[in-house]
Design brief:
Length: 284
């Protein structure tokens, strides 16, 4: 007898580890998956943030564990993996949501204008801080690779599982001013495809989502004028380039991730799925 659609999407009783789980995007995801009957392990470098998300999951009727650790610390991640496995068994799924930028890895200008007064010392690529560049790249790229290495072991042994990485619109076409972040997310997309092939005979699927501009408190801080609350010129350009004419909301990522974790996408691997309101499709 054919399975019902609801059965394909059923995640009840499964367990998932979510890095960056204390943040706005993955915190929303954690609560939604917990409400669906999943057991959610919340990992975040900020202990208080992880704890608050785990409390939100349990308040919504789900089951959760909170862990404070860095996604760049393989030994700490292995300890977390063992603790989760002792409590629930090895996680069925992994969502790699930890990431972010470093102000030192950004430029303040979009274009270099040689010959302008003082241009040599200007806030452009020639003067970018390589330490900041390395930090941003490592957080986003190595911070995806290392959790995949640690948390996929149980999936391989079970010959079943799904990993969802966070890429970005900037992986397709790099956004101005953020070279390190864009390069790292492009690397995440490439690595996602590589690992999907590497694990394809073992029953473990690996995909990524590429969010467009999703409104979070951090983005509000960057895209709204602190005094007036009005959108900045960059924010207005972002909306103008988004056919749906607005920012996304954190909960609008949930459906795609749930699909990628579930059997409803069991023939999907190595893909990077845009969730961007049409941003990546639009030109002039």
């Amino acid at each position: 007898m054919a399975r019902k659609i609801a059965d394909w999407f059923n995640l009840e009783g499964k367990s998932v580890a979510i890095t960056g789980g204390g943040g706005a995007l993955c915190g929303t995801l954690a609560v939604a998956l917990g409400e669906s009957g999943m057991r959610v392990a919340v990992l975040d470098i900020q202990e208080e943030a992880a704890r608050k998300t785990a409390e939100a999951v349990t308040s919504a009727g789900g089951r959760a564990l909170a862990f404070s650790c860095s996604v760049l610390d393989e030994a700490a991640l292995r300890m977390v993996y063992e603790k989760i496995s002792a409590e629930w068994g090895a996680p069925d799924f992994l969502v790699n949501g930890a990431g972010g930028n470093d102000p030192r890895a950004s430029t303040e200008v979009e274009f270099v204008e040689p010959g302008q007064p003082g241009w040599e010392s200007g806030p452009h690529f020639l003067n970018i801080d390589l330490e900041g560049f390395d930090k941003a790249f490592r957080l986003n790229f190595h911070g995806t690779v290392i959790p995949c290495k640690v948390f996929s072991r149980g999936m391989l042994e079970r010959r079943a599982g799904s990993i969802v990485n966070f890429s970005s619109m900037s992986a397709f076409v790099p956004l101005t001013k953020i070279p390190a972040y864009s390069a790292a997310k492009a690397a995440v997309s490439n690595f996602t495809k590589w690992l999907a092939v590497h694990y394809s005979h073992a029953g473990v699927r690996v995909n990524a989502i590429a969010p467009g501009f999703v409104m979070t408190e951090q983005l509000k801080f960057l895209h709204r004028d602190r005094q007036t609350g009005e959108y900045t010129p960059r924010a207005k350009r972002t909306i103008a380039h988004t056919p749906m004419g607005r920012y996304g909301e954190p909960e609008e990522l949930v459906g795609t991730i749930a699909w990628l974790l579930s059997d409803a996408s069991r023939f999907v691997t190595g893909d990077v799925i845009p969730i961007d309101g049409g941003f990546s499709s639009y030109t002039i």
